[in-house]
Amino acid sequence: MDKKEVVNLLNLQAKKIRQNIIKMIHEAKSGHTAGSLGMTDVFTALYFSFLNVNPKKPKDPDRDYLILSNGHICPGLYATLAARGFFKEQELFTLRKFESGLQGHPHRESLPELETTSGPLGSGLSQACGIALSLKRDKKNNKVVCLMSDGEHDEGNTWEAIMFAHKYHLDNLLVIVDRNRIQIDGNTEQIMPLGSLREKYLSFGWGVIDINGNDMQEIVNALQRATIEREKPLAIIAHTTPGKGVKFMEHDYNWHGRAPNEEETKRALELLK
Ligand SMILES: Cc1ncc(C[n+]2csc(CCOP(=O)(O)OP(=O)(O)O)c2C)c(N)n1
Ligand SMILES: [Mg+2]
């Protein structure tokens, strides 16, 4: 299969995942829509063309690790895990219900396929650094990918972990930042200006690649570069459109944590056809 065909297939997969995100959040009547839709292309590329994972052996000691630090966008992760065969698609519609494995924020004890429990922002990168360092010390080749949001860079702990990863040459660690420029109640540059994350990560000694996080070809190319021998941790700054694919949600921070009602769900699914 040539590269173009792969990208077309990934885009098709992403479309189905987006439809499920809308349906499951509508069914739950609550959940985080904008970030989930914005990061769907990244989730799809990771699980269908990058991570070494096996749904039949989720705890394989040779697996790659995915840490979702911005836990609130877990509908995107859950819908991707179902598409990849980790559990039945039907389970998606138990989102946020008592006894469900699919809690409103990732809970490893409810869903053992997850690597960590998350929700409190700013903790995931420290956890990913710990995993990456212990793998290196054991001379293992597993990759560790940590997904983070731009809003999480308002947390001091994030910057401690960025320094730590540089100090310990965590070349098995890849961060992908959802640079969607929104957070819970406004635009990031209004609430706490982040400026150029590229310049910041570079000055902390990391490698950096900026991409359009909704362009499958760019995502696939960046992930390929991430596997090339390097001596540093790497950050892919994924510039994404929050609410991607559903025009009336795009770039609107009000959709950060809002579920679509009946009528909005119909319109959204029409746009995602
Ligand atoms: C430590 C902590 N403080 C506050 C929150 C509440 N909170 C949940 S999401 C969020 C916005 C963070 O921005 P971002 O992750 O960029 O939002 P998105 O782009 O997904 O809309 C906040 C403040 C939290 N989950 N954890
Ligand atoms: Mg954000």
Structure in words:
- This protein has 273 residues and is of the alpha/beta class.
- The chain has one domain: Rossmann fold, CATH 3.40.50.970.
- Helices cover 40% and strands 12% of the residues.
- The protein contains ten helices and seven strands.
- The strands form two sheets. It has a five-stranded parallel sheet, with helices on both faces. A two-stranded antiparallel ribbon has the order 4-5.
- α1 packs across α4 and α1 runs antiparallel to α10.
- The longest helix has 26 residues.
- The protein is globular, with a radius of gyration of 17 Å.
- It starts with a helix and ends with a helix.
- The mean pLDDT is 97.
- The site of magnesium ion has 7 residues, from β4.
Keywords:
single chain, 273 residues, alpha/beta, Rossmann fold, five-stranded parallel β-sheet, two-stranded antiparallel ribbon, globular, binds thiamine diphosphate, binds magnesium ion
